[in-house]
Write a structure and sequence with these properties.
CATH class of the largest domain: Alpha Beta
Distance between the termini: 62 Å
Strand content: 5-15%
Helix content: 40-55%
Low-confidence stretches: 250-256, 404-408
Number of domains: 2
Radius of gyration: 21 Å
Number of strands: 10
Mean pLDDT: 92
CATH topology of the largest domain: Spore Coat Polysaccharide Biosynthesis Protein SpsA, Chain A
Number of helices: 15
Largest sheet: 8 strands, mixed
Strand order of the largest sheet: 3-2-1-4-7-5-8-10
Shape: globular
Length: about 400
Amino acid sequence: MKETYDIAVGIPSYREADTIGYVTEVAGKGLKKYFPDLRGIIVNCDNNSPDGTREAFLSADVPDTIDRDYISTPAGIKGKGNNFFNLFNFCQEKQVRMTVVVDADLRSITPEWIRYLGSPVSKGYDFVTPLYSRHQFDGTITNHLCYPLGYSLTGLDVRQPIGGDFAFSADLCAHWLRQEWNEMTRQYGIDIFMSLNAQFNDFRVCEAGLGTKIHKASSPKLGQMFEEVVYTLFSLLIENRSKWLSAWSKKGTEAPCHPSKSASVHAFGLEKMAEPQELKIDIAKLKQDCRKEYDDYKELVEQYLSPYAFNQISDMVAMDYYEVDIMLWSQIVYGLLYTFDGASEEVKHDIINVLKPIYFARSITFDYKTSHYSVPYAEKEVKSQAMAFLSQKPYLLGLYMGNGKYRL
C-alpha cells in the first residue's frame, strides 16, 4: 500500500544548523497538539548544507506519532525554489492533503503557528499567507515592490506575498508543478511565483495572523535575491497581463473602470500582534550603496527613464539627499514594468539594474520618514504606498493604450 499523509510541515533550508532543530521540535508539538487525528510528517528540504543542518534536523526531539524525512538537492545544486520543487513533488507523491511551510531560521515560531496556517486549508482555502508584526525596515522588497504591485494588479490585498511561512492545498500544489519553472523560479523567485499563481488563478487565498516574526532579518540589499524576485515578479505580472488589463474596462465598453481599493482576504489566527523585532539600519551605508549602483548603471538609468525622472534621481545622488516620493516611485516602477513587457532578455536584465539605485533611494526616503513611527503608523505608510500604486493604474493603462513606448 502506498504511504500517504494528511498533513506535512515543510522546512526549506541551507546552512541552518543553529536554528532548524528548534523549528522542527516546535512544528512537531504543533502537529501533535492541533492535528492529533491526522497522519503527519515533517520534511526538511535542504541544499546539501555542509554545516550539519541534516544532523540537527534528524536529531530534533519530535513526537513518535510524527514521521520525518530529509530531502536534498544534489551537491552543487542550490536555490530555495529547488527545495520547494522537491517538497511539492514529495507532497504530490505522498498525496498530502495540506502542507504548512515555515522558515528554518525562525526564533519566534510557536506550536500555534501550525494551527493558524493549517486550519484554513482544512476549511477549504488553497493558500494561506502570513500576517506578521514586522519592523518597517524588514522586508523591503515586499514593502516597496511585491506588496504594492500585487495590491494594485491582482485586486487582492495580500500583505505578505513573499513572507516565507504559509500553507497550501493539494490542488494548488499540483497547479504549481504544472507551471513552467525557469532558473529564477528555482532560486529566490519561488515565493512570488507561488503567490501570484494562486492569486491570478482563482484559488481561495486567506491570511493567518502569526504575531512577531523574529528571524535572521535583512535590511535593503541587492544581489541575487533582488534580481530573482523582481525578474519573477515582473514576468508573472506580464504573463497575466490580460487579467489585470481587462479588469480595468467595464464590460462591453472601452471605458476605464478604476477601483478605489483592492479586496481584503479573510484573516485567521491572531488579531492583535505584539511589538516586532527591533532593527537598526545604517543610512550612511544605504546611501553609499545607492551611489555605487547609480554610478554603475547611470547610462542605463538615463536611457530607460524620461528626462524628468532621470534629472530627479541624478540630482538626489549629487546632493546626497533622497526624496523619492510615492508617486514618482510608482510611476517609475510602472514604466519599467511596461518596458519589460516583450523585451529581450538583455533588456530585461538592464531594467532590473536600472531599478536598483532607485529602489535604494526609495528605501532611504521611506526609512527617513518612518524612523520614529510606531509600527501601526509605519504600516499605514506601507498601505498608502500600495494605494498610490492603485491610484496610478491609469498611468500604466495609458502606456498600453497608447501607440508607442511611453515612459515617465
